Amino acid sequence: MNLSREDVLAALARIALPGGGDPVSRDLIRALRIESGLISFVIETATPEEARAYAPVQVQAEAALRALPGVEKVQIVMTAHGPSAKAPAPSLKIGGHPTPQQGGPKKVSGIDRIIAIGSGKGGVGKSTVSSNLAVALARQGRRVGLLDADIYGPSQPRMMGVNKRPASPDGKTIIPLQAHGVTLMSMGFMLKEDEAVIWRGPMLMGALQQLIEQVAWGELDILLIDLPPGTGDIQLTLCQRFQMTGAIVVSTPQDVALLDARKALDMFQKLKTPVLGLVENMSTYICPNCGHEAHIFGHGGVATEARRLDLPFLGELPLDLSVRLAGDAGTPVAAGEGPVAEAYARLARRLIDGGVA
Ligand SMILES: Nc1ncnc2c1ncn2[C@@H]1O[C@H](COP(=O)(O)OP(=O)(O)OP(=O)(O)O)[C@@H](O)[C@H]1O
User: Among 127, 146, 158, which is best to mutate for testing ligand 1, by the most ligand atoms less than 8 A from CB?
Assistant: First the structure.
Protein backbone atom coordinates (compact mmCIF):
# COMPACT_ATOMS: atom_id res chain seq x y z
CA MET A 1 0.00 0.00 0.00
CA ASN A 2 1.62 3.25 -1.09
CA LEU A 3 -0.91 5.50 0.51
CA SER A 4 0.53 8.44 2.36
CA ARG A 5 -0.73 10.15 5.44
CA GLU A 6 -1.69 13.10 3.22
CA ASP A 7 -3.86 10.84 1.00
CA VAL A 8 -5.73 9.58 4.04
CA LEU A 9 -6.16 13.05 5.53
CA ALA A 10 -7.34 14.39 2.16
CA ALA A 11 -10.03 11.69 2.02
CA LEU A 12 -11.10 12.48 5.59
CA ALA A 13 -11.15 16.20 4.90
CA ARG A 14 -13.92 15.62 2.33
CA ILE A 15 -16.32 14.43 5.06
CA ALA A 16 -18.66 17.07 6.41
CA LEU A 17 -19.20 17.18 10.15
CA PRO A 18 -22.52 18.01 11.77
CA GLY A 19 -22.13 21.62 12.79
CA GLY A 20 -19.65 22.44 10.01
CA GLY A 21 -16.04 21.74 9.14
CA ASP A 22 -14.42 18.35 8.64
CA PRO A 23 -12.52 15.96 10.90
CA VAL A 24 -9.14 17.25 9.75
CA SER A 25 -9.79 20.98 9.92
CA ARG A 26 -11.44 20.46 13.31
CA ASP A 27 -8.33 18.55 14.48
CA LEU A 28 -10.14 15.41 15.57
CA ILE A 29 -7.79 12.81 14.11
CA ARG A 30 -5.33 11.18 16.46
CA ALA A 31 -2.91 8.27 16.22
CA LEU A 32 -3.20 7.80 12.49
CA ARG A 33 -1.37 4.67 11.37
CA ILE A 34 -1.09 3.30 7.88
CA GLU A 35 0.35 -0.18 7.76
CA SER A 36 0.14 -2.94 5.13
CA GLY A 37 -3.46 -2.52 4.10
CA LEU A 38 -4.65 -1.32 7.49
CA ILE A 39 -5.55 2.26 8.35
CA SER A 40 -6.29 2.94 11.98
CA PHE A 41 -6.90 6.12 13.92
CA VAL A 42 -8.87 7.70 16.68
CA ILE A 43 -11.52 10.36 16.30
CA GLU A 44 -11.26 12.36 19.49
CA THR A 45 -14.24 14.53 20.27
CA ALA A 46 -14.66 17.08 23.01
CA THR A 47 -17.63 15.43 24.67
CA PRO A 48 -19.39 12.07 24.72
CA GLU A 49 -22.44 13.75 23.23
CA GLU A 50 -20.38 14.94 20.28
CA ALA A 51 -18.97 11.44 19.83
CA ARG A 52 -22.48 10.05 19.60
CA ALA A 53 -23.50 12.74 17.10
CA TYR A 54 -20.47 11.83 14.99
CA ALA A 55 -21.37 8.15 14.65
CA PRO A 56 -22.40 8.64 10.99
CA VAL A 57 -19.04 10.33 10.38
CA GLN A 58 -17.30 7.16 11.48
CA VAL A 59 -19.31 5.15 8.94
CA GLN A 60 -18.61 7.67 6.16
CA ALA A 61 -14.91 7.79 6.98
CA GLU A 62 -14.66 4.03 6.88
CA ALA A 63 -16.38 3.86 3.50
CA ALA A 64 -14.25 6.67 2.06
CA LEU A 65 -11.00 5.08 3.18
CA ARG A 66 -11.95 1.58 2.08
CA ALA A 67 -12.46 3.00 -1.39
CA LEU A 68 -8.80 4.05 -1.54
CA PRO A 69 -6.48 1.72 -3.49
CA GLY A 70 -4.82 -1.03 -1.44
CA VAL A 71 -6.87 -0.50 1.73
CA GLU A 72 -8.05 -3.79 3.21
CA LYS A 73 -9.13 -2.78 6.64
CA VAL A 74 -10.08 0.44 8.41
CA GLN A 75 -10.18 0.68 12.18
CA ILE A 76 -11.66 3.80 13.67
CA VAL A 77 -12.18 4.35 17.36
CA MET A 78 -14.25 7.18 18.72
CA THR A 79 -13.15 8.66 21.98
CA ALA A 80 -14.28 11.59 24.03
CA HIS A 81 -12.34 13.24 26.78
CA GLY A 82 -14.92 15.51 28.27
CA PRO A 83 -17.16 14.76 31.23
CA SER A 84 -20.73 13.74 30.72
CA ALA A 85 -23.69 13.70 33.00
CA LYS A 86 -25.31 11.05 30.86
CA ALA A 87 -24.37 7.59 29.69
CA PRO A 88 -20.73 6.52 29.34
CA ALA A 89 -19.09 7.67 26.13
CA PRO A 90 -17.67 5.42 23.50
CA SER A 91 -14.05 5.43 24.46
CA LEU A 92 -10.77 3.62 24.32
CA LYS A 93 -10.85 2.61 27.91
CA ILE A 94 -10.12 -0.95 28.87
CA GLY A 95 -12.52 -3.40 30.37
CA GLY A 96 -15.73 -1.47 30.52
CA HIS A 97 -15.56 -0.54 34.16
CA PRO A 98 -14.17 2.99 33.84
CA THR A 99 -16.70 5.67 33.20
CA PRO A 100 -16.13 9.24 32.10
CA GLN A 101 -15.16 11.39 34.98
CA GLN A 102 -17.95 13.00 36.87
CA GLY A 103 -16.91 15.26 39.66
CA GLY A 104 -13.75 14.57 41.57
CA PRO A 105 -10.80 12.25 41.12
CA LYS A 106 -11.66 8.62 40.54
CA LYS A 107 -10.30 5.34 41.76
CA VAL A 108 -8.56 3.11 39.23
CA SER A 109 -10.05 -0.34 39.25
CA GLY A 110 -7.69 -3.09 40.43
CA ILE A 111 -5.12 -0.67 41.81
CA ASP A 112 -5.21 -0.26 45.58
CA ARG A 113 -2.89 2.71 45.89
CA ILE A 114 -1.27 5.23 43.60
CA ILE A 115 1.82 7.11 44.70
CA ALA A 116 3.43 9.80 42.59
CA ILE A 117 7.15 10.36 42.86
CA GLY A 118 7.89 13.98 42.14
CA SER A 119 10.67 16.49 42.34
CA GLY A 120 10.94 20.20 41.86
CA LYS A 121 13.76 19.93 39.38
CA GLY A 122 15.35 17.37 37.11
CA GLY A 123 18.40 15.29 37.89
CA VAL A 124 17.83 14.83 41.61
CA GLY A 125 17.23 11.10 41.14
CA LYS A 126 13.46 10.89 40.99
CA SER A 127 13.52 8.15 38.33
CA THR A 128 16.25 6.30 40.18
CA VAL A 129 14.24 6.41 43.39
CA SER A 130 11.09 5.31 41.54
CA SER A 131 12.66 2.23 39.97
CA ASN A 132 14.56 1.20 43.08
CA LEU A 133 11.61 1.71 45.36
CA ALA A 134 9.41 -0.29 42.99
CA VAL A 135 11.89 -3.17 43.04
CA ALA A 136 12.33 -2.96 46.82
CA LEU A 137 8.57 -3.07 47.37
CA ALA A 138 8.24 -6.03 45.00
CA ARG A 139 11.00 -7.83 46.90
CA GLN A 140 8.93 -7.41 50.03
CA GLY A 141 6.01 -9.16 48.42
CA ARG A 142 3.96 -6.23 47.18
CA ARG A 143 2.33 -6.35 43.75
CA VAL A 144 3.91 -3.27 42.22
CA GLY A 145 3.36 -1.32 39.03
CA LEU A 146 5.64 1.44 37.80
CA LEU A 147 4.42 4.01 35.33
CA ASP A 148 7.04 6.22 33.77
CA ALA A 149 5.04 9.34 33.06
CA ASP A 150 8.08 11.42 32.24
CA ILE A 151 7.07 12.22 28.70
CA TYR A 152 9.97 14.61 28.22
CA GLY A 153 12.68 12.14 29.14
CA PRO A 154 11.44 8.66 29.99
CA SER A 155 14.26 6.82 31.71
CA GLN A 156 12.61 3.69 33.06
CA PRO A 157 13.20 1.57 29.93
CA ARG A 158 16.95 2.04 30.52
CA MET A 159 16.84 1.81 34.30
CA MET A 160 14.63 -1.28 34.36
CA GLY A 161 16.43 -2.87 31.41
CA VAL A 162 13.46 -3.43 29.12
CA ASN A 163 12.54 -1.57 26.01
CA LYS A 164 10.15 -3.02 23.53
CA ARG A 165 6.79 -2.09 22.23
CA PRO A 166 4.09 -3.56 24.45
CA ALA A 167 1.56 -5.87 22.83
CA SER A 168 -2.00 -4.77 22.28
CA PRO A 169 -3.99 -7.82 21.21
CA ASP A 170 -7.24 -5.95 20.65
CA GLY A 171 -5.81 -2.59 19.67
CA LYS A 172 -7.10 -1.06 22.88
CA THR A 173 -5.69 -2.85 25.88
CA ILE A 174 -1.96 -2.41 26.33
CA ILE A 175 -0.09 -5.28 27.94
CA PRO A 176 2.58 -3.84 30.23
CA LEU A 177 6.08 -5.28 30.42
CA GLN A 178 7.60 -7.05 33.42
CA ALA A 179 11.02 -6.38 34.90
CA HIS A 180 12.57 -7.29 38.25
CA GLY A 181 9.19 -8.33 39.65
CA VAL A 182 7.57 -5.03 38.65
CA THR A 183 4.82 -4.43 36.10
CA LEU A 184 6.12 -1.62 33.96
CA MET A 185 4.80 0.88 31.47
CA SER A 186 6.64 3.85 30.06
CA MET A 187 5.94 6.62 27.65
CA GLY A 188 9.33 5.60 26.29
CA PHE A 189 7.94 2.29 24.99
CA MET A 190 5.54 4.18 22.79
CA LEU A 191 7.38 7.33 21.80
CA LYS A 192 9.57 5.87 19.15
CA GLU A 193 10.69 7.48 15.94
CA ASP A 194 7.92 9.24 14.17
CA GLU A 195 5.17 6.77 14.82
CA ALA A 196 1.86 8.31 15.64
CA VAL A 197 0.47 6.88 18.83
CA ILE A 198 -2.58 7.85 20.77
CA TRP A 199 -0.67 9.52 23.56
CA ARG A 200 1.36 11.60 21.13
CA GLY A 201 -1.51 13.87 20.52
CA PRO A 202 -1.45 17.40 21.79
CA MET A 203 -3.23 16.38 24.92
CA LEU A 204 -0.88 15.18 27.59
CA MET A 205 -3.89 14.69 29.74
CA GLY A 206 -5.31 12.11 27.35
CA ALA A 207 -1.94 10.41 27.12
CA LEU A 208 -1.56 10.00 30.84
CA GLN A 209 -5.14 8.91 31.24
CA GLN A 210 -4.64 6.23 28.62
CA LEU A 211 -1.46 4.99 30.23
CA ILE A 212 -3.27 4.56 33.50
CA GLU A 213 -6.57 3.28 32.22
CA GLN A 214 -5.78 1.31 29.08
CA VAL A 215 -2.84 -0.62 30.43
CA ALA A 216 -3.80 -4.03 31.77
CA TRP A 217 -2.09 -3.48 35.10
CA GLY A 218 -3.87 -6.40 36.75
CA GLU A 219 -4.37 -6.36 40.50
CA LEU A 220 -1.79 -4.10 42.11
CA ASP A 221 -1.12 -3.22 45.71
CA ILE A 222 0.59 -0.10 44.53
CA LEU A 223 1.25 1.84 41.36
CA LEU A 224 4.24 4.18 41.51
CA ILE A 225 4.22 7.00 39.02
CA ASP A 226 7.53 8.54 38.01
CA LEU A 227 6.52 12.10 37.19
CA PRO A 228 8.35 14.56 34.99
CA PRO A 229 10.27 17.13 37.03
CA GLY A 230 8.52 20.32 37.98
CA THR A 231 4.93 21.33 38.35
CA GLY A 232 3.21 20.99 34.99
CA ASP A 233 0.23 19.50 33.20
CA ILE A 234 1.01 15.87 33.95
CA GLN A 235 1.07 16.52 37.68
CA LEU A 236 -2.13 18.50 37.46
CA THR A 237 -3.97 15.89 35.40
CA LEU A 238 -2.86 13.06 37.59
CA CYS A 239 -3.96 14.60 40.84
CA GLN A 240 -7.19 16.02 39.48
CA ARG A 241 -8.37 12.91 37.65
CA PHE A 242 -7.23 10.04 39.83
CA GLN A 243 -7.55 9.27 43.49
CA MET A 244 -3.99 9.46 44.70
CA THR A 245 -2.78 7.86 47.89
CA GLY A 246 -0.18 10.57 47.93
CA ALA A 247 3.08 11.90 46.65
CA ILE A 248 6.70 11.45 47.63
CA VAL A 249 9.02 14.33 46.85
CA VAL A 250 12.67 13.59 46.14
CA SER A 251 15.33 16.21 46.64
CA THR A 252 19.06 16.42 47.06
CA PRO A 253 20.28 18.19 50.21
CA GLN A 254 21.31 21.33 48.33
CA ASP A 255 19.53 24.59 48.95
CA VAL A 256 18.67 25.12 45.34
CA ALA A 257 17.09 21.67 45.01
CA LEU A 258 15.19 22.30 48.21
CA LEU A 259 13.80 25.55 46.86
CA ASP A 260 12.43 23.64 43.90
CA ALA A 261 11.18 20.85 46.13
CA ARG A 262 9.17 23.46 48.04
CA LYS A 263 7.40 24.37 44.80
CA ALA A 264 6.54 20.71 44.20
CA LEU A 265 5.27 20.37 47.76
CA ASP A 266 3.21 23.49 47.40
CA MET A 267 1.71 22.15 44.18
CA PHE A 268 0.71 18.82 45.76
CA GLN A 269 -0.81 20.66 48.68
CA LYS A 270 -2.81 22.91 46.38
CA LEU A 271 -3.99 19.86 44.46
CA LYS A 272 -5.01 18.29 47.77
CA THR A 273 -2.73 15.31 47.19
CA PRO A 274 -1.33 14.18 50.54
CA VAL A 275 2.43 14.49 50.71
CA LEU A 276 3.58 11.19 52.19
CA GLY A 277 7.02 12.51 52.83
CA LEU A 278 10.37 13.68 51.56
CA VAL A 279 13.35 11.61 50.54
CA GLU A 280 16.92 12.88 50.51
CA ASN A 281 18.81 11.41 47.57
CA MET A 282 22.55 11.68 47.00
CA SER A 283 23.01 12.09 50.70
CA THR A 284 26.08 10.61 52.33
CA TYR A 285 28.96 9.47 50.14
CA ILE A 286 31.20 6.74 51.49
CA CYS A 287 34.54 6.57 49.74
CA PRO A 288 34.89 3.02 48.40
CA ASN A 289 38.66 3.14 48.98
CA CYS A 290 39.08 4.56 52.45
CA GLY A 291 35.56 4.42 53.93
CA HIS A 292 35.60 8.17 54.57
CA GLU A 293 32.13 9.68 54.76
CA ALA A 294 31.63 12.85 52.74
CA HIS A 295 28.64 15.04 52.05
CA ILE A 296 29.13 16.19 48.52
CA PHE A 297 25.79 17.95 48.15
CA GLY A 298 25.47 18.69 51.85
CA HIS A 299 23.56 16.54 54.25
CA GLY A 300 20.41 16.66 56.31
CA GLY A 301 18.81 19.58 54.45
CA VAL A 302 15.80 17.56 53.44
CA ALA A 303 15.20 16.23 56.94
CA THR A 304 15.35 19.79 58.28
CA GLU A 305 12.92 20.95 55.63
CA ALA A 306 10.55 18.07 56.44
CA ARG A 307 10.62 19.04 60.11
CA ARG A 308 9.98 22.67 59.22
CA LEU A 309 6.98 21.73 57.12
CA ASP A 310 5.78 19.10 59.55
CA LEU A 311 5.99 16.38 56.91
CA PRO A 312 7.41 12.88 57.32
CA PHE A 313 11.07 12.46 56.42
CA LEU A 314 11.22 9.07 54.75
CA GLY A 315 14.94 8.55 54.63
CA GLU A 316 18.32 9.19 53.08
CA LEU A 317 19.66 7.42 50.06
CA PRO A 318 23.42 7.43 49.66
CA LEU A 319 25.32 8.85 46.73
CA ASP A 320 26.99 5.80 45.32
CA LEU A 321 28.51 4.99 41.98
CA SER A 322 26.79 1.61 42.04
CA VAL A 323 23.43 3.40 41.83
CA ARG A 324 24.25 4.98 38.50
CA LEU A 325 26.03 1.93 37.12
CA ALA A 326 23.14 -0.33 38.07
CA GLY A 327 20.61 2.11 36.61
CA ASP A 328 22.56 2.37 33.37
CA ALA A 329 22.86 -1.41 33.18
CA GLY A 330 19.13 -1.94 33.61
CA THR A 331 19.13 -3.68 36.99
CA PRO A 332 18.30 -1.28 39.81
CA VAL A 333 20.69 -1.50 42.71
CA ALA A 334 17.78 -2.42 44.98
CA ALA A 335 17.55 -5.75 43.15
CA GLY A 336 20.89 -6.79 44.65
CA GLU A 337 22.51 -6.74 48.08
CA GLY A 338 24.54 -4.13 49.94
CA PRO A 339 24.08 -0.86 51.81
CA VAL A 340 22.14 0.96 49.07
CA ALA A 341 19.79 -1.99 48.53
CA GLU A 342 19.28 -2.01 52.30
CA ALA A 343 18.48 1.70 52.33
CA TYR A 344 15.79 1.08 49.72
CA ALA A 345 14.52 -1.95 51.62
CA ARG A 346 14.14 0.29 54.70
CA LEU A 347 12.27 2.90 52.70
CA ALA A 348 9.95 0.23 51.27
CA ARG A 349 9.37 -1.28 54.72
CA ARG A 350 8.57 2.11 56.14
CA LEU A 351 5.92 2.72 53.49
CA ILE A 352 4.44 -0.74 53.96
CA ASP A 353 4.36 -0.37 57.73
CA GLY A 354 2.79 3.04 57.33
CA GLY A 355 0.00 1.45 55.28
CA VAL A 356 0.69 3.46 52.15
CA ALA A 357 2.35 0.72 50.07
N1 LIG B 1 22.02 8.13 44.83
C2 LIG B 1 22.65 8.21 43.68
N3 LIG B 1 23.96 7.91 43.58
C4 LIG B 1 24.60 8.01 42.39
N5 LIG B 1 24.04 8.38 41.25
C6 LIG B 1 22.72 8.67 41.28
C7 LIG B 1 21.96 8.60 42.48
N8 LIG B 1 20.68 8.95 42.21
C9 LIG B 1 20.65 9.22 40.91
N10 LIG B 1 21.85 9.05 40.34
C11 LIG B 1 22.22 9.28 38.94
O12 LIG B 1 21.93 10.63 38.63
C13 LIG B 1 21.41 10.75 37.31
C14 LIG B 1 20.03 11.44 37.38
O15 LIG B 1 19.14 10.57 38.06
P16 LIG B 1 17.62 10.41 37.60
O17 LIG B 1 17.52 10.26 36.11
O18 LIG B 1 17.03 9.35 38.44
O19 LIG B 1 17.10 11.82 38.00
P20 LIG B 1 15.69 12.49 37.74
O21 LIG B 1 15.42 13.37 38.88
O22 LIG B 1 14.67 11.43 37.42
O23 LIG B 1 16.01 13.32 36.47
P24 LIG B 1 15.02 13.74 35.30
O25 LIG B 1 13.79 14.19 35.94
O26 LIG B 1 15.80 14.82 34.61
O27 LIG B 1 14.83 12.49 34.49
C28 LIG B 1 21.36 9.33 36.75
O29 LIG B 1 22.49 9.11 35.99
C30 LIG B 1 21.38 8.45 37.99
O31 LIG B 1 21.97 7.19 37.74
Answer: 127
Any bridge partners for residue 39, and if so which? 34, 74
CA 253 – ligand 1 centroid, Å: 14
- Give the residues across from 186 on adjacent strands: 148
Q: What is the CATH number of domain 114-353?
A: 3.40.50.300
Taking the domains of the chain in order of start, what are their residue ranges? Answer: 5-80, 114-353
Residue 42 marked in a binding site: no
Report ipTM for this prediction: 0.98
Mean pLDDT, consecutive 10-residue stretches, the chain (357 aa), reads 86 92 87 81 78 87 93 80 39 34 81 96 94 98 95 86 87 90 89 46 66 93 93 84 94 84 91 94 82 78 92 93 94 95 96 93
Question: Regarding the domain delimited by 5-80, which CATH topology (the fold level of the hierarchy) does it fall under?
Answer: GMP Synthetase; Chain A, domain 3 (3.30.300)
pTM above 0.80, yes or no: no
121 is in an annotated binding site: yes
208 near 214, Cβ under 8 Å?
no
Q: At 29, which helix (H) or strand (E)?
A: strand 29-35
